[in-house]
Amino acid sequence: MFRRKFLKKISYAFGFAIFNPIKWLQAQSETGLTVERDGQIVGHVPYVLIQNQYYIRLNDFADVNGFGQFTNSNRKKTVLIVDQAKFKFTHDNAFVIVNDRVLQILFTPRWRGGALWVALEELMALINEFTKFNLQFNESQKKLIFTDRQINITSLQIEHKANGTLISLTATQPFEAKDLKTKLVNGWLYLEIVGGRGDEKALSKKINDQSIREIRAAQLEQLLSIGFKLKNKPLSYEALFDEANGQILLTLHEKEVAQANQTEKAEDEQNHSIDEELERQKSEWMIDTIVIDPGHGGKDPGALGYYKLKEKDIVLSVGLLLGKYLKKKLPDVKILYTRKSDVFIPLWKRTKFANENHGKLFISLHCNASKSRRARGFETYFLSAEKDDKAREVVLLENESIKFESTDDRQKYEGINFVLATLAQNAFIKYSQYLASVVQKSLRKFLQPLGMKDRGVKQGPFWVMVGATMPNILVEMGYISNKNEAKMLRRKSTQSKIALALAEGIDKFKTDFESAM
Ligand SMILES: [Zn+2]
After folding, report:
1. How far is CA 444 from CA 15, 188, 225, 438, 504, in A?
2. How far apart are alpha carbons 58 and 86 in whole angstroms?
């Protein structure tokens, strides 16, 4: 949160805070800021104004408040210790080390008169983010107001999505899953945060939007309870802590994207016979469009292997063969490709394409590589926020494609989108898992006789699968970093076998899936 906000600021305000010595001298005559702590005035801290920014002398700030500090004059550094947090500031340096993290600030510290001066705005943000203290500045009274109320839940936001509502609470400390409890009582959904402390008044409000009427927060001794008066009963709800963004997320899953329309319709037309309704639902679920996604392409070669093999070439070849076999097996099914040639496509566009074309299955094709030349075998993944230990390397490798994308494209993957999209997929995950298992079984039948190793079905958080509103899998057809498998994978005959195996697996899934409808 903090970091993103400041990184954003840097883009438009860079150069704004360049030190101006004339202003500095003028500012020296100003008096100090009053420091108030829990209603008591504890002292004053000298400040100067530089280009409208309040800069305060860091060692005085520490002394007045009784915080630890250590200054290294030679290196023009000051370490400030507040609560459990250690902040290391350096003259003219936009990086602040907070414990063992590196953060970027916009207004860089200044070394003058044997001491380090730090922009108040930056210092407040750091203290409010990383310590139990709350620091506010009253500009008209030139007063710094310190409270150690230990507020750790600072704000609440609500976003409405296609299939539900996302409530995010900004937290100044991490929370464990066991400390986040939810319960639904008489139309109120309660989120209880054990160890949470918040401002009841600031969090409570009447909103009356499309899904929530009112929010009521109550601070109890052990926990912060936040009640949401809901307009509709959600299909499911879940609370979790999103470490990447330091937020508690409460998701209300209100309707399946694919079923949203038919649910509403079904309620309107209750006179329709159940048979008719089932028939209509069945046709909506029929697998009439399959999207084949050969991974990587263009400037993104994917994994590199023996015999100068590139992942992007092998998966395109297999993808085209798969399309051919599927057409033969399932002549009524529309086969679409995210790419049919050697072009680069951002990951998010691949599932967007599948969604827009009403794809009913999404098959992403990849080859694996490892530093260990002995690693070998084929495996099939379905999307999950969880990852198997061994899947880590593969997830990192495949998600690396993002580095070839433009900044704009990359921003689409930031933080929240992933968690939410994964949750939104809950409805498809069980089908994706089944699809993965039948495809892996079919690959085993075709590839084990060639001596290739069955690595099984796995799960992991792959960007390319996020956002697909249909069952989807990612197939790693073998290691091109393994000499034997590279030799096999470059052969057209092996590529055909893989494509045929995939086609058989998909056909089996289609039959099972449709007969279950
Ligand atoms: Zn790949």
Report:
1. 60, 50, 51, 10, 12
2. 13
- Distance of CA 332 from the midpoint of ligand 1 (Å): 30
Note whether 466 and 421 are within 8 A (CB): yes
Quick check: 387 and 398 in contact, CB under 8 A?
Answer: no
Whole-angstrom Cα distance, residue 449 to residue 443? 10
User: Which H helix or E strand runs over 268?
Assistant: helix 260-268
Return the sign of the alpha-carbon dihedral for residues 391, 394, 397, 398: negative
Q: Which tens digits make up the pLDDT trace of 342-398?
A: 999 998 889 889 988 989 999 999 999 998 999 999 999 987 666 666 677 777 778
Note the pLDDT of residue 71.
92
Cα(434)–Cα(289) distance, integer angstroms:
18
Given a cut of 70, whether residue 180 has pLDDT beyond it is yes
**Full set of structural domains in the chain with CATH:** 2-147 (3.30.457.10), 153-253 (2.60.40.3500), 281-516 (3.40.630.40)
Comparing C-alpha atoms, which of 169, 85, 70 is closest to residue 123?
85
- Cα 391 to ligand 1 centre (Å): 13
DSSP 339: -
Task: Give the Å distance between the CA of 386 and the centre of ligand 1.
Answer: 19
Tokens, residue 501:
């195996």
If pLDDT is split at 50, 70 and 90, which confidence band does 246 have? Answer: confident
pTM higher than the cut 0.85: no
